[in-house]
Amino acid sequence: YYRKSVLGARVKDIVLLILISKLFPTIYNDLYIFKRLFQYFSMIFIHTYQQR
User: Fold this and answer.
1) In this structure, is the dihedral angle defined by the CA atoms of residues 16, 18, 24 and 26, taken in order, positive or negative?
2) Which residues contact residue 31 at a Cβ distance below 8 angstroms, ignoring those fewer than 6 apart?
3) CA–centroid distance for 38 within its chain
4) What pLDDT was estimated at residue 20?
5) Where are the transmembrane segments (predicted)?
6) Span 2-16, average pLDDT
7) Domain-by-domain residue ranges, the chain?
8) Crossing angle between the packed helical segments 2-23 and 28-51, to the nearest 10 degrees
9) Which residues does 11 contact at the CB level (< 8 Å), separation at least 6?
10) Cβ contacts of residue 38 below 8 Å, gap of 6+?
11) Burial class, 49, CB count within 10 angstroms (exposed 0-12 / middle 13-18 / buried 19+)
12) For the whole model, what pTM was predicted?
């Protein structure tokens, strides 16, 4: 259950970023940078989680 809740929170963050980027295209570049950082950290999270 904990894994699903963490995944759900991450999915919600991604959906929010996509919605905001569509609603406010003027700050899309900043959101793109945040999305890239988010993907980077999520990759690290998945990698460290698989090692356990």
Assistant:
1) positive
2) 17, 20, 21
3) 5
4) 74
5) 14-34
6) 77
7) 2-51
8) 170
9) none
10) 13, 14, 17
11) exposed
12) 0.35
**Residues 6+ positions from 23 with CB-CB distance below 8 Å:** none
Give the amino acid at 48: T
Q: What pLDDT digit, counting tens, does each position of 34-51 carry?
A: 888 888 888 888 877 776
Tokens of 45: 């999270």
Q: Which two tokens stand for residue 49?
A: 């989680």
Residues in the chain: 52
3-state secondary structure the chain: CHHHHHHHHHHHHHHHHHHHHHHCHHHHHHHHHHHHHHHHHHHHHHHHHHHC
Token pair of 9 as six digits: 């929170």
